[in-house]
Design goal:
Mean pLDDT of chain A: 97
Low-confidence stretches of chain A: none
Strand content of chain A: 15-25%
Structural class of chain B: alpha/beta
Largest sheet of chain A: 7 strands, parallel
Distance between the termini of chain A: 53 Å
CATH architecture of chain A: 3-Layer(aba) Sandwich
Order of helices and strands of chain B: EHEHEHEEHEHEEEHEHEHH
Helix content of chain A: 40-55%
Number of helices of chain A: 10
CATH topology of chain A: Rossmann fold
Oligomer: heterodimer
Helix content of chain B: 40-55%
Number of helices of chain B: 9
Largest interface: A-B, 59 and 59 residues
CATH superfamily of chain A: NAD(P)-binding Rossmann-like Domain
Number of domains of chain A: 1
Chain lengths: ~280, ~270
């Protein structure tokens, strides 16, 4: 795997924190040049500084991935400087926990814009470049929620399901051009995605800490994604609890109701408390 | 007395195809159908056909990408009819072509109709049904979304989104007495391909490469309602489609050869 990422040009969205940041670190350690993109200017500059201080080669790009022109400028910059793109990690994403009942259209728009359109912008801009190169990998970070659904996070699950379906279809188209399309479906990962996300009429701590699964670290998640990309796995599902949920969903769909009901119950308890205040 | 007698069924994309068949079938069974669609001639024709057969129908012009318009019609329906028992988020469009031939506008168009159209319906109607304490939302997705479909990537993206939305909402809605189902048909003989976008290929040549049988929209409507009556979360038809779904579940690679054949056949006829 070490040679696989050496001297490669990798764009990573959502680089300022969490899985993205760990992927940048890891990729850089393995010898990749990193174009680190994020909407959080301070923290993306920080990680780029850290990488460059260690002797790596990283550029920071402050963009909102749902802004097509901004994304396009970034891709142009990469091509001008390096004449190729080897990896696009469409990793940036946001969460929203809410009953659908409490959501406004703006809430739906936001999730779909960032989690789906952001990925599509990346694909539209980079895929054709890679097909012409005859090489490259686009790795989309979806979620286990995209595989099995997530009551109390319907917009999130919807956007992630879209990324999943998109990836599975594009993968087959891309093969002839030597381009790999992979989609990662992480389960619960210990990152700031929850605290920086939106929670409507409930308190995050009331339910996120009650999940019956152990969260893995962002570093572990990054490792899994890079490993899966290297092996060109169509679906990169981790950790064990994610694989387990997917298995149950596929073979014992009636059993999936148990965790689903529990998740919804915990959210509703929090919502009840919140609205009573 | 049918279970649909006196019930109010709101259908999007009811001017033709599956929507039209749903409207006709439900009206025959005593439901009052709100026939909505983009084209006046079509929805008026469907409503007239229903009324001449002795059924009850109202035609209402609706572009599902217009949320305010959607809300208005729902408000009017609730005030005039008292309730909404069924919402069929059926309106949808296709795009056939390779991603390398698409531009961002293509993606956005599909998201607008196939995903946001459904979001608009849910946002406008779900609160009404929660207030009522009953109701059934039926979202039309596609078998293609269950395992992928090269040459229809954007379509699959939006239809997959509908599945994720429906699956999640189903668990939320049960508490309020509202049911949610998602429909995954295989090939249905409707105008959806003719009126859709096709990039760098001829439709008739594409259709020649499809080895699976098309069912007609009347049978599709029947299958949908069968699933709705059983309150199934996932309604897949026809029978071979269920086999395809099993294959995808057993191992995602089982149907790889079929998917690869799809893109290979398309590339032979791509202009």
């Amino acid at each position: 795997m070490n040679a696989y990422y050496k001297n490669k040009i990798a764009i990573v969205t959502g680089s300022a924190s969490g899985i993205g940041r760990e992927m940048c670190r890891h990729l850089s350690d393995l010898g990749s040049t990193i174009i680190a993109a994020d909407i959080d200017k301070n923290n993306v500059d920080k990680i780029v500084q850290e990488i460059n201080d260690k002797g790596g080669n990283a550029h920071s790009y402050h963009i909102d991935i749902s802004d097509y022109d901004a994304f396009s400028n970034m891709v142009d910059f990469v091509l001008k400087k390096y004449q190729r793109i080897d990896f696009l990690f469409n990793n940036a994403g946001v969460t929203l926990f809410s009953e659908v009942l409490d959501m406004s259209l703006d809430h739906w728009d936001k999730i779909i814009k960032v989690n789906l359109l952001g990925v599509i912008n990346g694909i539209d801009l980079v895929y054709k470049i890679m097909t012409q190169q005859g090489s490259g990998s686009i790795v989309n970070v979806a979620s286990t929620a995209g595989l099995v659904g997530y009551p109390s996070a319907a917009a999130y699950a919807s956007s992630k399901s879209a990324v999943l379906g998109l990836s599975q279809s594009l993968r087959i188209e891309a093969e002839e051009f030597g381009v790999n399309i992979n989609v990662a479906c992480p389960g619960y990962v210990d990152t700031g995605i929850y605290t920086s996300g939106t929670v409507i009429n409930a308190k995050l701590d009331d339910f996120i800490n009650k999940i019956p699964f152990k969260m893995i670290s962002a570093a572990c998640a990054a490792e899994e994604i890079l490993k899966g990309t290297y092996k060109n796995k169509a679906l990169i599902i981790f950790p064990f609890h994610a694989k387990f949920l997917w298995f149950v969903h596929r073979f014992f769909p009636f059993l999936i109701e148990i965790p689903m009901k529990k998740v919804m119950q915990q959210f509703r308890n929090s919502r009840k408390l919140f609205l009573e205040k | 007395m049918s279970r649909y007698s006196g019930k109010i069924a709101f259908i999007t994309g009811a001017g033709s195809g599956i929507g039209e068949s749903l409207a006709m079938t439900l009206a025959k069974q005593g439901a009052k159908v709100i026939v909505t669609g983009k084209r006046d001639e079509n929805i008026n024709q469907v409503a007239d056909n229903i009324k001449s057969a002795g059924g009850a129908a109202i035609a209402a012009k609706l572009d599902v990408t217009d949320f305010e318009g959607f809300q208005e019609i729902i408000k009017r329906t609730v005030s005039e009819e008292g309730s909404i028992d069924y919402l069929f988020n059926n309106a949808g469009i296709t795009l056939l072509g390779e991603v390398r031939d698409m531009d961002i506008g293509h993606w956005k168009k599909l998201i607008d109709v196939n995903l946001m159209g459904v979001v608009h319906g849910v946002s406008a109607v779900y609160p009404v049904m929660v207030k009522q304490g009953y109701g059934h939302i039926v979202n039309v997705s596609s078998l293609a979304a269950l395992g992928g479909y090269p040459t229809a990537t954007a379509y699959v993206a939006t239809k997959s989104a509908v599945i994720g939305l429906s699956t999640s909402l189903r668990f939320e809605a049960k508490y309020y007495g509202v049911n949610v189902s998602v429909v995954c048909p295989s090939y249905v003989n409707t105008r959806i391909f003719k009126s859709g976008v096709i990039l760098r290929a001829d439709l008739d040549k594409i259709l020649k490469t499809i080895n699976f049988p098309f069912i007609n929209s009347a049978d599709a409507a029947k299958s949908i309602l069968k699933g709705v009556e059983k309150n199934k979360g996932l309604i897949i038809f026809p029978f071979y489609a269920r086999l395809v779904w099993w294959a995808f579940r057993l191992h995602p690679n089982f149907l790889r050869p079929n998917l690869v054949k799809l893109i290979k056949d398309f590339r032979k006829i791509r202009k």
